[in-house]
Design a protein that fits this description.
The structure is a single chain. By secondary structure, this protein is an alpha/beta fold. It has 2 domains: 158 residues, Aspartate Aminotransferase, domain 1; 247 residues, Aspartate Aminotransferase, domain 2, CATH 3.40.640.10. It has 15 helices and 14 strands. The strands form 3 sheets. Strands 4-10-9-8-7-5-6 form a 7-stranded mixed β-sheet, sandwiched between helices. A 4-stranded mixed β-sheet has the order 1-2-3-13. Helix 2 runs antiparallel to helix 11, helix 3 runs parallel beside helix 11 and helix 7 packs parallel to helix 8. The longest helix is centred in the last third of the chain and has 22 residues. The two termini are 21 Å apart. Bound molecules: ligand KE4. The site of ligand KE4 has 21 residues, from helix 4 and helix 5. Ligand KE4 binds next to helix 4 and helix 5.
Length: 434
């Protein structure tokens, strides 16, 4: 992989400067604006397999994968073909459709905690709906979330959130009434004692715990052995629910997600990203007795014009069909481990303080000497160095998430050639920056 120097991004810059007059920050989602890594964002023209091309014709090995959905590779021919066929029947029904049954059955078969599922249109919708359900089922108002975890942009979650909130340094976004977040309690990730203390101080008031079972929104952070099991027993002992937000980890760490990988079955699960195969889908599901509270089966209201959209269902069904084939997760694990281990050893050889995590098709590297177990740990990373690393990798044809507080994603399309080229770029960049 040779540097694309001179790195011509003139068309990107022209389109982005127009965009800034039309849309806040020139983007449809904040983290895409490259605010925390500096420089102008790259305007994509097309994607295929492990690659993205920008409007200036530069090609990148892509480790964002549209933030997770592209796990079988961008524009997979089988997904595209299935969508072409579905398109002939129209784009939206707003009525029951057998495709919803098919994807629901696949999700229920795959995810240990899910006996019944409701489709929505984004991970945010899934998490905000599951929060209402936790409260409806327990009759309690308070929730526990973890510093650095991101569960979408609904008001009650924008408290010490990760992802774009952390990236932009917006721990508590304006416009969120204090009354809304008064019921949101936070604890450091991997800190069971802090969670126990919150339950002791809020007896019978906490409806449940919502957690990213592997954090992807503060960089990639793994649960310490016993942490998830500890949360499950604390929740049970206090009559509270345990919710895994697997919007990112679902179908990425295993076909059954983090809950299959760690052998911990929560009461409720949120999904998104991969189950839509790149089209807008979210979902929440869990124990039947809880899910039957959701309207119209029960009193808890939640609705959506485009929920269960036939195109999104089609892309999700085909994506999961590809993922459930033999050997897919072993392939993803092996490629991602090779990449993550390679990045770390190259960083150490070049004299950089760096630690990292990898699990399934997810990885992250922090420019810090200490192992990262919490958001506080992640914040010891050298953000300035990360910015220079990110820009250098772009110039060498590798597209990483534009924030230290994001995870990297591989796909079935990231083969030996892509991993080798990426590590060559890492070596070139890390030998140039101090
Ligand atoms: P969406 O509303 O963006 O579909 O999902 C929200 C969400 C919920 N839960 C988890 C664990 C998530 O990672 C997300 C969204 N992830 C971010 C990336 N860190 C989406 C990228 C963006 O905000 O543009």
């Amino acid at each position: 992989m040779v540097a694309q120097i001179p790195f011509n991004t003139s068309k990107s810059q022209q389109i982005f400067s127009q965009a800034k007059n039309l849309m806040p920050g020139g983007v449809s989602s904040p983290v895409r604006a490259f605010k925390s890594v500096g420089g102008e964002p790259i305007v994509f023209d097309r994607v295929e397999g492990a690659y993205a091309w920008d409007v200036d014709g530069n090609r990148y090995i892509d480790y964002v994968g549209t933030w997770g959905p592209a796990i079988v590779g961008h524009a997979h021919p089988e997904v595209i073909e299935a969508l072409h066929k579905a398109l002939e029947k129209g784009t939206s029904f707003g009525a029951p459709c057998v495709l919803e049954n098919q994807l629901a059955e696949m999700v229920i078969d795959a995810v240990p905690s899910i006996e019944m599922v409701r489709f929505v249109n984004s991970g945010t919708e899934a998490c905000m709906s599951v929060l209402r359900l936790m409260r409806a089922f327990t009759g309690r108002d308070k929730i526990i979330k973890f510093e650095g975890c991101y569960h979408g942009h609904a008001d009650m979650f924008l408290v010490q959130a990760g992802s774009g909130v952390a990236t932009l340094g917006l721990p508590d976004s304006p416009g969120v009434p204090k009354s809304t977040t008064a019921n949101t309690l936070t604890a450091p990730y991997n800190d069971l004692a802090a969670v126990q203390a919150l339950f002791d101080a809020n007896k019978d008031q906490i409806s449940g715990i919502i957690i990213e079972p592997v954090v992807g929104n503060a960089g990639c952070i793994l649960p310490k052995p016993g942490f998830l099991a500890g949360l499950q027993s604390i929740a049970k002992a206090n009559g509270a629910l345990l919710v895994f937000d697997e919007v990112m980890t679902g179908f990425r760490l295993a076909y059954g997600g983090a809950q299959e990988r760690f052998g911990i079955t929560p009461d409720l699960t949120c999904l998104g990203k991969i189950i839509g195969g790149g089209l807008p889908v979210g979902a929440y599901g869990g124990r039947r007795e809880i899910m039957e509270m959701v309207a119209p089966a029960g009193p808890m209201y939640q609705a959506g014009t485009l929920s269960g959209n036939p195109l999104a269902m089609t892309a999700g069904i085909k994506t999961l069909e590809i993922l459930r084939r033999d050997g897919t997760y072993a392939q993803l694990d092996a490629a991602t481990k090779k990449l993550a281990d390679g990045m770390l050893s190259i960083a150490h050889e070049a004299g950089h303080a760096a630690t990292g995590n990898q699990i399934g098709a997810m990885f992250g590297m922090f420019f810090t000497a200490q192992q990262v177990y919490s958001f506080e740990d992640a914040k010891t990373s050298d953000l300035n160095k990360f910015s220079r690393f990110h820009r250098g990798m772009l110039e060498h044809g590798v597209y990483l998430a534009p924030s230290q507080y994001e995870a990297g994603f591989t796909s079935l399309a990231h083969g030996d050639a892509e991993i080798a080229a990426t590590l060559e770029a890492v070596r070139a960049v890390l030998s140039q920056i101090s």
